[in-house]
UniProtKB/TrEMBL annotation:
InterPro entries the record matches: UPF0756_TM
Chief location category: membrane
Topology within the bilayer: Multi-pass membrane protein
Highest taxon in the source lineage: Bacteria
HAMAP family, alphabetized: UPF0756
One of the record's GO cellular component terms: plasma membrane
Keywords: Cell membrane, Membrane, Transmembrane, Transmembrane helix
Transmembrane segments: 6-31, 51-69, 75-94, 106-125, 131-149
Species of provenance: Desulfofarcimen acetoxidans (strain ATCC 49208 / DSM 771 / KCTC 5769 / VKM B-1644 / 5575)
Annotated protein name in UniProt: UPF0756 membrane protein Dtox_2360
Signal sequence range: none
Location within or outside the cell: Cell membrane
Family note: Belongs to the UPF0756 family.
Length: 150
């Protein structure tokens, strides 16, 4: 199946399963391809993840910048059980994200499984597709466990 057909299929799947992010991403890439702006693809492939993470981090830091979170809240969070679990979760998630990035570099085709899994998560579990890198990290963890068992 060609890249164009795959993008159209992802667009249809995204619209059908109400995954606006998948549909929008497929549509943007489809437009870039159709108006012959494919020279942007290598830049998006190299820096797209960083750009996306930048906006994700900005959205997470908005409550801090707007004053909804103050130093008292931060101190409590860092010294409470939920806060300590958040630190542990953040460290584990960062490690898994790194492993996911390695997996995507070694086997970029795995992204289609991640997208399909995201669609299943959206439709069946009312999930949000905000963590394809984390999904790749969990996949890498699953593969590591399977390789250890073999």
């Amino acid at each position: 199946m060609s890249g164009l057909a795959m993008l159209i299929a992802l667009l249809v799947i995204g619209v059908f399963f109400r995954s606006n992010l998948i549909a929008a991403a497929a549509l943007i890439l489809l437009i870039l391809k159709l108006v012959n702006l494919q020279f942007i693809f290598p830049y998006l492939e190299k820096r797209g993840l960083e750009i996306g993470l930048l906006f994700l981090i900005i959205s997470i830091l908005v409550p801090l910048a707007s004053g909804k979170i103050d130093s008292k809240d931060i101190i409590y969070t860092l010294t409470s059980l939920p806060g300590l679990m958040a630190i542990l979760g953040g460290a584990l998630a960062t490690h898994l994200n790194g492993e996911g990035l390695k997996l995507l570099q070694v086997d970029p085709a795995v992204i289609f499984g991640l997208v399909f899994g995201s669609i299943i998560g959206i439709v069946l579990f009312n999930g949000q597709p905000v963590g394809p890198l984390m999904a790749a990290g969990i996949t890498a963890l699953f593969l590591e466990v399977i390789y250890l068992i073999k």
